[in-house]
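Input/output pair, single chain:
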Amino acid sequence: MQKLIVTGANGAGKSFVAARLSAARPEIPLISFDKIKLTSNWQQRPRADIEQDLEQVIAKEAWILEGGPSLLDQALPKADAIIWLDPPLVLRAWRLLVRPWHNLGKTRAELPAGNFDWPAQQYRFAFRSLRNSSTFQSKILDHLEKVKTQRIWHCRTREDIEIAVNNWRRAGKDTP
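Output:
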């Protein structure tokens, strides 16, 4: 198992869990989809550029790719496994509420330079994300229902995440 997608809605904990997975197997590069799709000031790159850069990433031998459901169309067929982070809505809401204050005026590690967290901007984004929760879940579920051979971990709790991380760690030890 060398190619892993970590997906979920905003505030699901994708970056945090992806960092843990990367620490468990540091030989596998961690790629944030936000770094592929954004420039600065929260502006999205042209779709063709995003798809081209994502194609280059997923063509490699090994990766941990962290991002929302928009990466699934292209990346899912190349993945060995998927971790779907799907915590309760109240937990996501709490994370989205406190995140801008933890990173006030800074760019988070998973973002390209120039994408600063400011509460007013982030709260508008968070509200839209929470309002569209069922859409995120439906998109991810639609993709995962088509999966034939990949391993899927649907993580709703901390315990589910621990199981997925431990399985990922063990898969690295089993690889020659």
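The first strand starts at residue 3 and ends at 8. The chain has a mean pLDDT of 88.
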